[in-house]
Protein backbone atom coordinates (compact mmCIF):
# COMPACT_ATOMS: atom_id res chain seq x y z
CA UNK A 1 0.00 0.00 0.00
CA UNK A 2 1.18 3.47 -0.81
CA UNK A 3 0.54 6.59 1.21
CA UNK A 4 -0.24 10.05 -0.09
CA UNK A 5 -0.53 13.07 2.16
CA UNK A 6 -1.09 10.89 5.21
CA UNK A 7 -3.81 8.78 3.54
CA UNK A 8 -3.53 5.12 2.70
CA UNK A 9 -4.08 4.41 -0.97
CA UNK A 10 -5.12 0.84 -1.72
CA UNK A 11 -4.20 -0.60 -5.06
CA UNK A 12 -6.70 -2.34 -7.32
CA UNK A 13 -4.88 -5.62 -6.73
CA UNK A 14 -5.30 -5.31 -2.96
CA UNK A 15 -8.97 -4.37 -3.27
CA UNK A 16 -9.57 -7.36 -5.53
CA UNK A 17 -8.02 -9.60 -2.88
CA UNK A 18 -10.24 -8.15 -0.18
CA UNK A 19 -13.35 -8.61 -2.31
CA UNK A 20 -12.47 -12.26 -2.93
CA UNK A 21 -12.15 -13.03 0.78
CA UNK A 22 -15.06 -14.78 2.41
CA UNK A 23 -16.81 -13.19 5.36
CA UNK A 24 -15.20 -15.74 7.68
CA UNK A 25 -11.74 -14.88 6.32
CA UNK A 26 -12.35 -11.16 6.84
CA UNK A 27 -13.52 -11.68 10.43
CA UNK A 28 -10.63 -14.02 11.22
CA UNK A 29 -8.13 -11.52 9.82
CA UNK A 30 -9.47 -8.73 12.06
CA UNK A 31 -10.17 -10.86 15.13
CA UNK A 32 -8.40 -14.26 15.05
CA UNK A 33 -10.18 -15.79 18.09
CA UNK A 34 -13.65 -14.41 17.38
CA UNK A 35 -15.33 -17.72 18.27
CA UNK A 36 -14.38 -17.23 21.92
CA UNK A 37 -16.43 -14.01 22.19
CA UNK A 38 -19.22 -14.34 19.63
CA UNK A 39 -21.92 -17.00 19.23
CA UNK A 40 -22.04 -16.62 15.44
CA UNK A 41 -20.00 -15.33 12.55
CA UNK A 42 -22.70 -12.77 11.73
CA UNK A 43 -22.59 -11.24 15.22
CA UNK A 44 -18.83 -10.82 14.95
CA UNK A 45 -19.02 -9.40 11.42
CA UNK A 46 -21.73 -6.96 12.49
CA UNK A 47 -19.72 -5.70 15.47
CA UNK A 48 -16.61 -5.33 13.30
CA UNK A 49 -18.57 -3.29 10.75
CA UNK A 50 -18.20 -5.77 7.90
CA UNK A 51 -21.94 -6.19 7.42
CA UNK A 52 -24.70 -3.74 8.18
CA UNK A 53 -28.20 -4.97 9.00
CA UNK A 54 -31.09 -3.07 7.46
CA UNK A 55 -34.69 -2.91 8.54
CA UNK A 56 -36.98 -3.37 5.58
CA UNK A 57 -40.67 -3.76 4.88
CA UNK A 58 -41.89 -7.32 5.29
CA UNK A 59 -43.60 -7.15 1.89
CA UNK A 60 -40.25 -6.79 0.14
CA UNK A 61 -39.13 -10.14 1.54
CA UNK A 62 -42.02 -12.15 0.12
CA UNK A 63 -40.84 -13.95 -3.00
CA UNK A 64 -44.34 -14.12 -4.46
CA UNK A 65 -44.57 -10.31 -4.40
CA UNK A 66 -41.10 -9.87 -5.86
CA UNK A 67 -41.75 -12.43 -8.60
CA UNK A 68 -45.10 -10.94 -9.54
CA UNK A 69 -43.46 -7.51 -9.92
CA UNK A 70 -40.73 -8.98 -12.12
CA UNK A 71 -43.32 -10.86 -14.19
CA UNK A 72 -45.37 -7.67 -14.58
CA UNK A 73 -42.31 -5.67 -15.72
CA UNK A 74 -41.50 -8.37 -18.28
CA UNK A 75 -45.06 -8.33 -19.57
CA UNK A 76 -45.01 -4.53 -19.83
CA UNK A 77 -41.66 -4.58 -21.67
CA UNK A 78 -42.98 -7.21 -24.10
CA UNK A 79 -46.15 -5.22 -24.70
CA UNK A 80 -44.13 -2.02 -25.25
CA UNK A 81 -41.83 -3.70 -27.76
CA UNK A 82 -44.33 -5.86 -29.64
CA UNK A 83 -47.61 -4.06 -28.99
CA UNK A 84 -50.85 -5.65 -27.94
CA UNK A 85 -53.56 -5.14 -25.41
CA UNK A 86 -53.46 -5.76 -21.70
CA UNK A 87 -54.87 -9.09 -20.62
CA UNK A 88 -58.41 -9.14 -19.33
CA UNK A 89 -57.40 -11.26 -16.37
CA UNK A 90 -54.23 -11.42 -14.40
CA UNK A 91 -52.32 -14.63 -13.76
CA UNK A 92 -51.31 -14.68 -10.10
CA UNK A 93 -49.70 -18.09 -9.90
CA UNK A 94 -50.71 -21.65 -9.23
CA UNK A 95 -53.77 -22.42 -7.22
CA UNK A 96 -53.58 -25.03 -4.56
CA UNK A 97 -55.92 -27.99 -4.63
CA UNK A 98 -58.31 -28.14 -1.76
CA UNK A 99 -58.28 -31.33 0.21
CA UNK A 100 -61.70 -32.52 1.29
Task: Tell me what portion of residues adopts beta-strand conformation.
Answer: 5-15%
- Unreliable runs, pLDDT <50, ≥5 residues? 8-12
Question: What oligomeric assembly is this protein in?
Answer: single chain
Strand count, sense and closure of the main sheet? 2 strands, antiparallel
Distance between the first and last residues' Cα: 70 Å
The helix/strand order is: EEHHHH
Q: What is the rounded Rg?
A: 24 Å
Number of helices: 4
Count of the separate structural domains: 2
- Sequence of strands across the biggest β-sheet: 1-2
How many extended strands? Answer: 2
| Secondary-structure-derived class | mainly alpha
Shape estimate: elongated
Overall average residue pLDDT: 76
**Percentage of helical residues?**
40-55%
Question: What does this protein look like?
Answer:
By secondary structure, the chain is mainly α. The protein folds into two domains: 2-47, no CATH class; 56-85. The chain has helices at 12-20, 23-30, 41-47, 63-82, and strands at residues 2-4, 7-9. A two-stranded antiparallel sheet has the order 1-2. The chain is elongated and about 60 Å long. Residues 8-12 have low confidence and may be disordered.
